[in-house]
Every structure is written in structure tokens, then in C-alpha cells.
């Protein structure tokens, strides 16, 4: 058996189940604000497109997807990020959600015959980055996200030796769990570093469409690259998904786009891996990428919930509405696990202790004294949960 499997940590939700196992909640309506699973209804036109394409089940799909889907995804990327061009034949691929793609990408890209392959990633982080690095035979290197730095990794603190050993850098913008957006200038500095030290930047942008300021959508890595004249996106690959944008986490439809040489190798890997997207899914995905009205409606609902959170929680907890995502990265007055446990026992509300998403480092653990609250439940359920949270009678 692969010994690196032993190095995979328990997934945060396993740890959460263990925490809850010994506890008895009060008899109040349960509310789950722990998992980042969108709960707004799937738009009917997406479900309809899927149903109407069911005859596609009779054919094996190609790993690179249909021309129609790749064109649709390229059109979306060009419009969303004001790109001059993006070649649908070579610079974009369909994937079955970003989770599998973020994992598979490391397996295809890491050269584990190199002396000390390292994969740099934020801390706290989406857990797949670490597992992907470990199973690809690399070492994860954690870059802490601190409030004082706006929850942007301190890339200046990365030594030249570390950049030298870095083969892959994961960034998450907008970030889970902090909602921070990495500024364009910082992305451009990273692209220069990637050029200088020859590594790949994998930018997880699956929250790109859930943002506060309608006039200022979060900048993306391809946009930052194109704006500095890197029109063929060298060293840059982005991961995006319909799960959050279109409320279809069960459809498993996303995209990977950027550097054509890297995508060619990734497609080669995927052909063997066997992860083509079913044809009906491709048709539904094309319909979803082609519509913005439902996405705007989605954003409006999240904005409403953030406002509610601010009004309800501010008298008791410091609340900063992040520029994007649907999370609150709430500072807790007591230990984060005790806080989550007491909230569950006293109010039957489930949130995720921040330390389940982060690792200890030489400069501390940035998930300590934080919980992640996913504002995914419908508005009324969130309103109810937030006032119960504000009334929590916690004990140190
Ligand atoms: C940061 C981040 N990346 C990727 C994913 C995976 O999403 P999907 O596979 O549905 O695209 C998630 C899901 O919660 C996430 O939070």
C-alpha cells in the first residue's frame, strides 16, 4: 500500500463528527452551517437542460469535452476576466468539479524524482491541497493567513530556497475560509516568481462569483497574467466551478484553464485517469456558464445574509464582512472547539472549528480561536441561527 496514505489527516468533517459524537444537543431545530454546500435551489433551466440531454448517456464522452462546452467556458472566461483571447481548443478543459481537478493536477505536475519537491499553500486551506501534495510525493509548506495581513499569505517571507524547491503553489482567491481576495499586484508578483523559479501557480477560484461589490468582481489569475502581457498564461492554471456559482454542487462540473503546455500534459494524464464528464452534464454545464442572471440573484441572497450576520452578531462578536465567498471566519472568545461544542449543545447549530482547517506551524496555528460559519442555509434559517448564535451563553 502507498505509505503516504498514512500521512493523510482525518478530514475536517470526520473530526467534527467525533467532536459532536459525545454531545447531546437541546431540542431545537438543527441548523448546519459547517459545510460549504450551497442550499439555494438549483435554477430550473439547468435541470431542464440536463433532462433534455439524457440521450447522451448512450455514448462514451471524450476527456477533453465537447467543442461546444469548451467554447462556452472560454467565452465565459474571456468576458468575466476581460481577456483578449483564450483558445477553447488548447487553453480550457472540463473537470468534474474543482475538487478532483485540484487533486489530480498535483499528481500530473509534481516531479517526485526531484530532491525536495515542495507544494506551497495557504493555512488554513481547502484540505485537498495537502492531500494532493502528499500523495504526489511532495512536502506541503504552509503560508499562514493572518488578520493583520488581510488574510493574504506573506509571500515576502518565503525564502529563495523555498521558492527554488517549490514546484506548485496553490492559491485560493477568493479564499475559503477567509473570503479574502488576492490583489492583482500580488498575483503579478507571484507570476514573476513562477517565471524566475520555474514553478506552477494553481489558483482555486471556485468562489469567484460570490462577491459583495457588484462593480468590483474579484480579479483572477488569468486576468492578472494577461494584464502584465503574459497572454499565453505561462505558469498559470485556474480552477473554477459551477457548484457555488450556480447552486449545483451535485452536478460535478467545473473547468481548468490557462497555460496550454500544462493543460496538454494534464489532459494526457486525465485520459488515463478516466475522468471524462458525462455528456448530459456537459450540456447542463454549458447552459449554466451561459447565464448570469441566476448568479446575480445568488449574490443578492448572500449579501442579504451577510448584512443579517453583521446586524445580529456585531453587538457580541467582531464581524467583518469579507469581500467574497459565503463564509464568516469568526473570532471566538474561547477555544474554537469548545465554542463549536457549546453552540451545538445549547443551540443545535453546527459550525466548523477553524483549527480543523489549519495546521500548526513555527509561528502558530491561524485556525485557533476561529470558527468557520457557512451562510448557506436559506435566509430565514440563517436569521434564526444567527440570533441563536448571538445569544449563546458560552463558558471559558
Ligand atoms: C476552496 C474550495 N475549492 C474547491 C472546492 C470544491 O468544489 P467543487 O469540487 O464542487 O468545484 C471547494 C468546495 O467546498 C472549496 O471550498
Tell me what you see in this structure:
This protein has 396 residues and is an alpha/beta fold. The chain has helices at residues 12-21, 44-52, 67-81, 98-109, 128-135, 160-165, 184-197, 221-227, 242-245, 260-273, 279-289, 293-313, 336-347, 379-390; strands at 31-32, 92-95, 118-123, 139-144, 166-172, 200-204, 236-241, 254-258, 327-331, 349-350, 352-353, 370-374. The strands form three sheets. The chain has a seven-stranded mixed beta sheet with strand order 2-8-7-6-5-3-4, with helices on both faces. α8 (221-227) links the parallel β6 and β7 (236-241). α3 packs parallel to α11 (279-289), α4 packs parallel to α5 (128-135) and α4 packs across α10 (260-273). The longest helix is centred in the C-terminal third of the chain and has 21 residues, at 293-313. The radius of gyration is 21 Å and the shape is globular. Bound molecules: pyridoxal-5'-phosphate. Pyridoxal-5'-phosphate (PLP) binds at residues 36, 97-99, 126, 172, 176, 204, 206, 241, 243, 249, 254.
Amino acid at each position: 500500500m502507498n505509505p503516504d496514505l498514512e500521512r493523510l489527516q482525518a478530514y475536517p468533517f470526520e473530526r467534527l463528527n467525533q467532536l459532536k459524537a459525545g454531545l447531546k444537543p437541546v431540542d431545537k431545530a438543527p441548523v448546519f452551517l459547517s459545510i460549504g454546500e450551497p442550499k439555494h435551489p438549483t435554477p430550473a433551466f439547468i435541470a431542464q437542460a440536463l433532462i433534455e440531454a439524457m440521450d447522451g448517456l448512450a455514448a462514451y464522452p471524450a476527456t477533453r469535452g465537447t467543442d461546444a462546452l469548451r467554447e462556452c467556458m472560454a467565452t465565459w472566461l474571456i468576458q468575466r476576466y476581460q481577456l483578449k483571447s483564450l483558445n477553447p481548443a488548447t487553453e480550457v478543459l472540463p473537470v468534474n468539479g474543482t475538487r478532483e481537478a485540484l487533486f489530480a493536477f498535483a499528481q500530473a505536475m509534481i516531479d517526485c524524482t526531484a530532491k525536495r519537491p515542495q507544494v506551497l499553500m495557504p493555512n488554513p486551506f481547502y484540505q485537498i491541497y495537502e492531500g494532493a501534495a502528499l500523495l504526489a510525493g511532495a512536502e506541503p509548506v504552509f503560508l499562514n493567513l493572518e488578520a493583520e495581513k488581510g488574510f493574504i499569505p506573506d509571500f515576502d517571507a518565503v525564502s529563495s530556497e523555498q521558492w527554488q524547491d517549490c514546484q506548485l503553489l496553490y492559491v485560493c482567491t477568493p479564499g475559503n475560509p477567509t473570503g479574502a481576495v488576492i490583489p492583482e499586484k500580488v498575483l503579478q508578483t507571484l507570476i514573476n516568481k513562477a517565471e524566475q523559479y520555474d514553478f506552477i501557480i494553481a489558483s482555486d477560484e471556485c468562489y469567484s462569483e460570490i462577491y459583495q461589490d457588484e462593480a468590483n468582481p474579484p480579479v483572477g489569475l488569468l486576468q492578472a497574467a494577461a494584464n502584465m502581457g503574459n497572454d499565453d498564461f505561462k505558469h498559470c492554471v485556474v480552477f473554477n466551478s459551477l457548484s457555488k456559482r450556480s447552486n449545483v454542487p451535485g452536478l460535478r462540473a467545473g473547468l481548468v484553464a490557462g497555460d496550454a503546455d500544462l493543460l496538454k500534459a494534464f489532459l494526457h494524464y486525465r485520459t488515463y485517469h478516466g475522468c471524462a464528464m458525462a455528456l448530459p452534464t456537459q450540456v447542463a454545464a454549458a447552459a449554466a456558464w451561459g447565464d448570469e442572471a441566476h448568479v446575480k440573484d445568488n449574490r443578492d441572497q448572500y449579501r442579504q445574509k451577510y448584512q443579517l450576520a453583521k446586524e445580529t452578531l456585531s453587538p457580541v462578536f467582531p464581524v467583518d464582512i469579507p469581500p467574497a465567498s459565503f463564509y464568516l471566519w469568526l473570532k471566538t472568545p474561547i477555544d474554537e472547539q469548545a465554542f463549536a461544542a457549546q453552540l451545538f449543545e445549547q443551540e443545535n447549530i453546527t459550525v466548523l472549528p477553524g483549527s480543523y482547517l489549519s495546521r500548526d506551524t513555527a509561528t502558530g496555528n491561524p485556525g485557533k480561536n476561529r470558527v468557520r460559519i457557512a451562510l448557506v442555509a436559506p435566509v430565514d434559517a440563517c436569521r434564526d441561527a444567527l440570533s441563536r448564535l448571538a445569544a449563546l451563553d458560552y463558558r471559558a
